[in-house]
Write the structure tokens for this entry.
Amino acid sequence: MKCSELTILDTRDLVGNPKNPRKITTQSLNRLCDSIRQNGFWQHRPIAVEKQEWTDKWVVLDGNQRLKALRRMKRREAPCVIYSELTDEERDDIILRSNINNGEWDVDMLQVEFEQTDFEAIGLQIELPDIEPIDPITTSPKGGNQPQQTDDTEPTPTQEEDGSASSPEKMSLYFRMLGDYVYPSNNEFDIPTLLTDNMPVHLELPMNPWGAEARYKKGITTYHFYVDDYRFEQLFKDPIKLLESGCKAIVEPNCSIHDQTPMAHAIWQTYRKRYLCRYLQECGMQIWVDLNVSPHFEEVNALGVPEGYNAFCTRGVSGWLNTTERHWEMAKRISGLEKPNMFVYGGGEEIEEWCKAHDLVYVNEFMNRNRQE
């Protein structure tokens, strides 16, 4: 077996391995793209390739999912190492051993293409004859649906990892509260009404976007969700991870609602974010109401926010000062105050100057230091 030094190859000259027994979900592929954008390619994980007789391109032995990610991102360069003079056993060992920790196993492919392989010998703990599909949803003690740990969810941190003071007893209580509850509502659609007895008074820092860095980075006090929807979608099924993070407050999830969104979907998006936030309030967390939705749905977005609520946030956008001003008026109407408690996230100099003139907190938009486009 021979192996080259690190070599840059054109992604168009690479082909995925037809014997690759690993699969990846859309969510996991999106995460992999994010990792590459933020961190580049770690030098210790180049794509392993080999020339094979059935094609004139380089066949990927290790790195099929990274190749998919590069192509989705329209990247042309792929850091690779080139293998040659491999025996069948060495080739299969590279394919299997390097893929143990990521994605999901294609059981049928394992049984057909690797039936002679000693899986236990290479550290793959799997019993092919006994494998059955696992339903990732189980029933909670209160009858609600709770997800089991799967490859698409992230491991629950220990108290030492995240600095949270949450006890096992408290986490057990939170799980029990995740049943099919019906919260009080002030509207015809039964969208839950937020509580007014534990509203945030001041924006506590540090504030981070959910999913832009490690979920359980120690010391994050406030999370916001002005990020792609897929980053926080799992929280609607399992918000316990947010509670375990140790944060004190959040800005409501900014579910995508555009001018062309059907009304029924806009109502559903509003319902589930208010339900989640009412549950989090019941657990002691403080909620900033997000006002950043399409003008067509601003009244829908106000459903479940009681009169007198006084903790708001919106996302500023350069060149759209009129939108920020409209959200300011909405906050004044709901709170009943001329100077409601509201802060603005991002938007540039014009928005920042407007905030200063109205005595509002302005927060610079978070930019990942390692972001690469």
